[in-house]
Design goal:
This protein is α/β, with parallel strands linked by helices. Helices cover about 40% and strands about 20% of the residues. Helix 14 links the parallel strand 18 and strand 19. Helix 1 packs across helix 7, helix 2 packs antiparallel against helix 4 and helix 4 packs parallel to helix 5. The chain is globular and about 80 Å long.
Amino acid sequence: MDSVETYFPGSSTGSHVGGELLSGTGQAVDLVDPTTGQVLTTYADGGADVVDAAVAAATEGARRWQQMTASARGQALWQLGQEVRAEAEPLAHLEATVAGKPLRDAGAEVAKVAEMFEYYAGWADKQHGEVIPVPTSHLNYTIREPYGVIAQITPWNAPVFTGGWQIAPALAAGNAVVIKPSESTPLSTVVLARLAERAGVPAGAVNVIAGLGPTAGARLVTHPGVNKVVFVGSPATGRRIAAAAAAELIPCVLELGGKSANIVFADANISRAVGGAAAAIFSGAGQSCVAGSRLLVQRQAYAEVVERLAELADRITVGPPLSESTQVGPLQNKPQLERVRQMVGAAAQAGARAVTKSTAMPAHGYFYRPTVLADVTNSDAIAQQEVFGPVVAAIPFEDEDEAIALANDTRFGLAGAVWTGGVERAHRVARGIRAGTVWVNSYKTINVMSPFGGFADSGFGRSSGTDGLAEYTQAKSVWVETDDEAPLAFGY
């Protein structure tokens, strides 16, 4: 394989199809540096023709991948994890440059990607069926079979992380993938595909589309050669994708947005809760589906928590992602910056008060200071709509019942947290929160071993752990008659 530097902006950019770089023929797409707002490089949209070629390559890639023994597939996935570790530094640098993540954060996410492939490597040869004691003379057993070609669409906020998060279980189950990262951040996913082939995964088993949603994405999710669709992104887009795929009877997994409630009771360790609240919303510039964007604080601790969080936020260093001192980098793109500004402005008009004061940040690029808003009610737009930026809405509550009611008063159901010194309360509130992930006295710990996904507008299906692995296979029931004298059955 070429070095990772081959895929840095300024080099040839295109789709990775069947082991080769394939240029698109559609409109020009600019990759913009979120640190400066300047164009890094330009490539041609890989539209329907490129998608068709990728699905054809994946069909052949799936055949070749499934011809390998399950143990051999596991060994290839393990080796892929080692390849990611070997290229960790340049891959993190690439991610920081294009996605705008602080280099420290990008490096941590690359390490998690390696862990994803290593974890699922161990599952490749452990997907067993079962023997069912049916009430006839048959031997009845089940086997788990891969779907075949999986279409995956991932967002711009964590391209290498979400790329590994989706590719690893799909390959472990024996599928091939055609993955379309955001048109703003395709490069690190292309590198993962190249590293997969270097590790022994057949060419065509991992294909990457560099293209736009209305062209490449629309063709991919309705392609007759696709057997399942996995989408990570906004609820609005998720609805359109689910409807389009359903029209073709293609099943989906949707991992969508969140408006997660971070609940702090007065008996909590306030210092840890404030630090956890800062990490929950400000890391990654708030561009996380599980961001703790609603901070629910028991009234007797509300003023202290809000004041201390604002003071902490004002000390955060906002700057270029490649600087070692940077704690929060830019938002990834200009439309997102404008959205955050608009939502905070509307919140101010509705009565919200910005408690944070610092304005220190670079003059150019898509930067936004960490912001704490007080005097917010849970019915306000800033508390109901996903901001996807470093903005937290602080809301007081009186007691446990009100905290749970406020937490669940949203269309989202992705994550939440509770900070308390009471063990019994911790379990009661965790049970009461309607969300796919709940943390107690911590926030934002995610690991490939544990299932992840949401309820309601946060989507359906799971994308990690053994639950995520199960999304990529179907059960086949095999009936073997063991009695030649048994009567033949008619009907059902």
